[in-house]
Amino acid sequence: TADHTEDQLLNFYKRLLEDKSIVPVNYWKKAVAYAAVLVIGLFSGYLIFHSEQTKTENTVVYSVPLGSKSKLLLPDSTEVNLNSGSTLSYSAGFSSINRNITLSGEGFFHVKSDIHHPFNIHTADFDATVTGTQFNISAYEDDHFASTTLLEGKVSLDFAKLGKSAVLKPGQKILLDRATQKISEQEADTDTETAWKEGQFIFRNIPFPE
User: Fold this and answer.
1) Three-state SS across 90-149?
2) How far apart are CA 154 and CA 147, in angstroms?
3) Is the Cβ–Cβ distance between 32 and 40 less than 8 Å?
4) What confidence tens digit (pLDDT) does each residue in 140-178 have?
5) Residue 199, SS3 per DSSP
6) How far is CA 167 from CA 112, 130, 159, in A?
C-alpha cells in the first residue's frame, strides 16, 4: 500500500546508520540517489491503468489521462500500450485489412503480423508502416523530440514534410529534433525505452540532479 512507502524509507535509513555511525559524504549521496529511485519505483507502481473511449459515427478515440496508462486490443488483434497523456484514434472502418491509426503521445505496439495488409501509424511528424513487429513511438506534441525504437521486425518511417524516409532494424532508434528538423539514427537501449509500460523508470549514466 502507499502507507508502506514511508516505512520502507525509514527502515532503509536505519540500516545505513546501523552499518556505520559516521557515513562519508559520497556514501550519503549514493544513499539519497538509491532512496529517490525507490520512491520513484514505488510511486510508479500505483499508476492507474485507465483510458477513456469515445465513439462517433466515423471515429473511435482512446484518451489516457495524465498519471495513467492503458492497454488496448485493436480489432485486428494488435496490442497497444498507451502512456500517460496519449491519444489513439482510428476510423470506424478499421479492420484486419484496413489498419490505419493516428497517435499523439507514446505507445508501444505489438502488431499482428500480416504482410499483405500493412499497419499504418500517423503522427504529427511522420508515418510508420509495419507488417508485424514490436516497437515504441514517442510523439508528444509538446516534446522537443519525436522518436521510434524498434525491438523486433522492421519499421519504415516516412517524414513527408522533410522529404525523407528511413527503415529501422531491431535495436535501432530514430530521433527527430523538432527545433532543427534533424533526423538522427542511433543504437537504442530498448529496456530503458520501454520500461514505462511496466511502470518503471530506468536511468543509465545520468547525473542524479538531472
Assistant:
1) EECCCECCEEEEEEEEEEEEECCCCCCCCEEEECCCCEEEECCCEEEEEECCCCCEEEEE
2) 15
3) no
4) 999 999 999 999 999 999 999 999 999 999 999 999 999
5) coil
6) 19, 10, 11
